[in-house]
TrEMBL record:
<comment type="subunit">
    <text>Homodimer.</text>
</comment>
<dbReference type="InterPro" id="IPR003695">
    <property type="entry name" value="Ppx_GppA_N"/>
</dbReference>
<dbReference type="InterPro" id="IPR043129">
    <property type="entry name" value="ATPase_NBD"/>
</dbReference>
<dbReference type="Pfam" id="PF21447">
    <property type="entry name" value="Ppx-GppA_III"/>
</dbReference>
<feature type="domain" description="Ppx/GppA phosphatase N-terminal">
    <location>
        <begin position="23"/>
        <end position="305"/>
    </location>
</feature>
<dbReference type="GO" id="GO:0005886">
    <property type="term" value="C:plasma membrane"/>
</dbReference>
<dbReference type="GO" id="GO:0006798">
    <property type="term" value="P:polyphosphate catabolic process"/>
</dbReference>
<keyword id="KW-0472">Membrane</keyword>
<dbReference type="Pfam" id="PF02541">
    <property type="entry name" value="Ppx-GppA"/>
</dbReference>
<keyword id="KW-1003">Cell membrane</keyword>
<protein>
    <recommendedName>
        <fullName>Exopolyphosphatase</fullName>
        <ecNumber>3.6.1.11</ecNumber>
    </recommendedName>
</protein>
<dbReference type="InterPro" id="IPR050273">
    <property type="entry name" value="GppA/Ppx_hydrolase"/>
</dbReference>
<dbReference type="InterPro" id="IPR022371">
    <property type="entry name" value="Exopolyphosphatase"/>
</dbReference>
<dbReference type="InterPro" id="IPR030673">
    <property type="entry name" value="PyroPPase_GppA_Ppx"/>
</dbReference>
<feature type="domain" description="Ppx/GppA phosphatase C-terminal">
    <location>
        <begin position="311"/>
        <end position="489"/>
    </location>
</feature>
<dbReference type="InterPro" id="IPR048950">
    <property type="entry name" value="Ppx_GppA_C"/>
</dbReference>
<dbReference type="GO" id="GO:0004309">
    <property type="term" value="F:exopolyphosphatase activity"/>
</dbReference>
Length: 502
């Protein structure tokens, strides 16, 4: 008898600096089939001023686009939709305002992802939509940033995100739409200066095939194809001839190139300048366009059965190994923290078991001592700094911020006024996770091989936490732990919390 096909619909939305994209796919058993693509030119980056504040007009354009996208995915369950925001919303000081307005029209969380994570997902999207080669160079020129990745099969190995974009460079070098050789050369030189620090490393590593993804490179490919480049490849000599045509036009308004859409025109010249700098400096013989990009990478990562590994677990383990974490101790802390969270989740009205908060608590337990590699003195702050600023594949910006926050507050004084504002997680939930992690750390503070007695936490209506054990004299036999709990009790009291133990 033939097995019944399991069908699942998923969607990925990419909030770029120039355009918003949505891809909808159907997962049938273990095959992913793209159903539809949707694109809206939003030009979000044009609304970002010198103070890094996004104006309301640009925000409104974005919200109107998301309203349209929401109609297409109405009824999709939260685990089947991912929305990621890139460069402009990484830069904007009022991103929280945008996310709050977005929440009113589309009922799914907006994740702001770091540049390196954006690059990794772009590579994943290209790798899944191209015939496999031994190694690939993937370039994606967006509105505010450019991602460059070299990888092998499905694994990115060299990842960078540079602040070079077709919208930002248009505003900087072609604000009035005039095109001159001097302006083009200035834009190219500025891009080369950004590339300077990584060029040697990329050339040395090398690659078999170079792919370009997303709008800028697609537009260049289309124009070159209409000009006689039948194979569709992008080369330095073809870009040089294209530059001549741009200078000859003299202005964006006068551009008349077959294959170039009206909506792409305003940012096309800056995109050509950036692409020329990349191909010239990296000595790329030819580049081919790939339909796969960030949103396809999101789709493939969303479907568990299509993943090759859990990237975030691998990231956490790699970071722990790099900083020589006492992994046996970390696993004991993780085990106890998980037990407490499973026990308390219904009382604390936390999301159900196996959700992201459970995972983040476990990862913070594994990584809470990475800062010891710097110094014992204030190592919780060192741990927080490392987790905030290290490239952590698989984590969006807020997940990374939350991990940093959890380890920052896992010991010592609770200066809760220093907690960052988060949009994906409720503060009351974060505080409960901090309490659980602190108790798991304190109770394992002796690093003893002797097992702890069975412990239970009781929380009354006034949010008083009481730590109980079935062994009545458990603390009498461990005076050092008793002292540590007394100190922890004082820290809780200073934060306005109540901790008791019996």
């Amino acid at each position: 008898m033939k097995d019944v096909e399991e069908i699942r619909h998923i969607a990925a939305i990419d909030l770029g600096s120039n355009s918003f994209h949505m891809v909808v796919a159907k997962v049938v058993n273990q095959d992913l089939q793209l159903i539809s693509r949707h694109k809206q030119r939003v030009r979000l980056a044009t609304g970002l001023n010198d103070q890094k504040v996004l104006d309301q007009t640009a925000i409104q354009r974005g919200i109107e686009c998301l309203e349209m996208f929401a109609e297409r995915i109405q009824g999709f369950s939260p685990e089947n939709v991912r929305i990621t925001a890139t460069h402009t919303l990484r830069q904007a000081k009022n991103t929280a305002e945008f996310i709050e307005q977005a929440r009113q029209v589309i009922p799914y969380p907006v994740e702001v992802i770091p540049g390196a994570e954006e690059a990794r997902l772009i590579y994943l999207g290209v790798a899944h939509t191209q015939p496999q080669s031994q190694s690939m160079l993937v370039i994606d020129i967006g509105g505010g940033s450019t991602e460059l990745v070299i990888g092998h099969e499905f694994t990115p190995e060299l990842v960078n995100s540079l602040q070079i974009g077709c919208v930002s460079y248009t505003n900087r070098f072609f604000p009035d739409g005039k095109i001159t050789r001097k302006r083009l050369n200035q834009a190219i030189l500025a891009a080369e200066q950004k590339l300077e620090s990584i060029v040697r490393q990329y050339r040395k590593k090398g690659w078999d095939t170079a792919f370009g993804s997303s709008g800028t490179i697609k537009a260049v490919r289309d124009v070159l194809s209409e000009s006689g480049a039948q194979d569709g490849s992008i080369t330095l000599s073809r870009l040089e001839k294209l530059q001549d045509k741009l200078v000859e036009a003299g202005s964006v308004d006068n551009l008349s190139l077959k294959g170039l859409s009206e909506e792409r025109k305003p940012v096309f010249v800056a995109g050509v300048a950036i692409l020329f700098a990349i191909i010239k400096d990296l000595k790329i013989r030819e580049m081919h366009f790939s339909q796969g990009a960030l949103r396809e990478g999101l789709l493939y990562e969303m479907e568990d059965r299509l993943k090759y590994t859990d990237i975030r677990l691998r990231t956490a383990e790699s970071l722990a190994q790099k900083h020589q974490v006492d992994i046996d101790h970390a696993r004991k802390v993780k085990k106890l923290a998980k037990q407490f969270l499973e026990q308390l989740a219904p009382v604390l009205e936390l999301p159900a078991k196996n959700t992201e908060l459970f995972d983040l608590l476990e990862w913070s337990a594994i990584l809470h001592e990475v800062g010891l590699s710097i110094n014992l003195q204030g190592f919780h702050r060192h741990s927080a700094y490392i987790l905030r600023h290290t490239n952590m594949p698989g984590f969006n910006s807020e997940q990374q911020e939350l991990l940093s926050t959890l380890v920052r507050f896992h010991r010592k004084a609770l200066k809760l006024n220093e907690m960052p504002e988060l949009t994906l997680y409720k503060k009351k939930h974060v505080i409960q996770i901090i309490r659980i992690l602190r108790l798991a750390v304190v109770l394992n503070g002796q690093r003893s091989d002797d097992p702890l007695p069975e412990l239970k936490i009781i929380i009354n209506d006034h949010d008083k936490w009481t730590l109980n054990s079935v062994e009545q004299e458990w603390l009498e036999n461990n005076k050092l732990l008793h002292t540590d709990l007394e100190t922890e009790q004082q820290y809780w009291q200073s934060a306005g919390w109540t901790l008791q133990y019996a």
